[in-house]
Amino acid sequence: MTLRALIFDVDGTLAETEEAHRRAFNETFAENGLNWEWSISDYTRLLRTTGGKERMQRHRADEGLSAPSDADVAALHKIKTQLYADILAEGSLTLREGVADLIDTARAAGLKIAVATTTNRPNVDALARCCWGEDASAIFDVIAAGDEVEAKKPAPDVFELALDRLDLDPVHCIAFEDSQNGLYSAKAAGLPVIVTPSIYTEADDFTKADWIVPTLRRDDLPPELSKRLYRF
Questions:
Q1: Which of 30, 53, 66, 182 has a CA-to-CA distance to 72 between 20 and 30 Å?
Q2: pLDDT at position 1, please?
Q3: CA distance 204 to 181
Q4: Does the annotation count 205 as an active-site position?
């Protein structure tokens, strides 16, 4: 079938963002009197739960705590989102290898470029401004965010939302992911999936992926796929 769109996860796939997220969480906790500090190992474990608010709720449950309340978690997450944007505004984040060239080449060929992510829209805009100097709407034809769907990854909802907004069947698209939850989400939506494991997901099980590659550089893509993407 004819390839018509590429659908990207954001965190870990477009850029290695998770350390910026972890820093934003920890600064939020410290500035709001919450005696939590997530180490790298803590955050690696918590990433198995998709969604920032959900990770805080998971940590609360793991620690056997009753506070903060769900309402307080939501309020803290809003503060964290702004802190994350501030961190990215420092300009230290870069796209993963091959991402910019792949998106530029695909767009020049007339392919649509979409995002299907567990994170919220402000975080997508923050990354786009940091890495492209533009709002996300200038880079992506379609953005489907985690706060727009009922169930987050590994449920297929966010990829199905992206497909609906693209008005395309999954056979005309390829999904790009870095995590097991993301892989399961995309496959459940019927999409072929390329996985580029990230720093935090290298130990995930990717046996259901169609392709596993270290980067999205043209030379790293499988030959048959590179031919499809770079035939123009």
A1: 182
A2: 67
A3: 9
A4: no
- Tell me the residue ranges of DSSP E strands in 124-191: 142-144, 173-177
pTM of the model: 0.88
Number of neighbouring beta carbons within 10 Å of residue 59? 20
In the residue annotation, 157 being an active-site residue is answered as: no
The burial of 152, by beta-carbon neighbours within 10 Å (0-12 exposed, 13-18 middle, 19 or more buried), is given as buried
Q: Which of 11, 125, 157, 204 is catalytic?
A: 11
The pLDDT value recorded for residue 10 is 95
Q: Count CB neighbours of 33 within 10 A.
A: 6
SS3 content of the chain, % helix, strand, coil (to 5): 50, 10, 40
CA pair distance 116, 182, nearest whole angstrom: 9
Using DSSP's 3-state secondary structure scheme, residue 134 falls into: coil
Cβ atoms of 144 and 152 closer than 8 Å: no
Phi/psi-derived region of residue 190, left when phi > 0, alpha when psi is between -120 and 50, beta in every other case? left
Which one-letter DSSP state was computed for residue 15?
B
Contact between residue 80 and residue 28 where contact means Cβ atoms under 8 Å apart = yes
Could you tell me which residues are beta bridge partners of residue 175?
A: 7, 193
How does pLDDT run across 167-225, given as a tens digit for each residue?
999 999 999 999 999 999 999 999 999 999 998 999 999 999 999 999 999 999 878 77
Q: Which of 9, 125, 178, 204 is catalytic?
A: 9
Highest mean predicted confidence (pLDDT) among 43-57, 81-95, 180-194: 180-194
Higher pLDDT, 34 or 225: 34
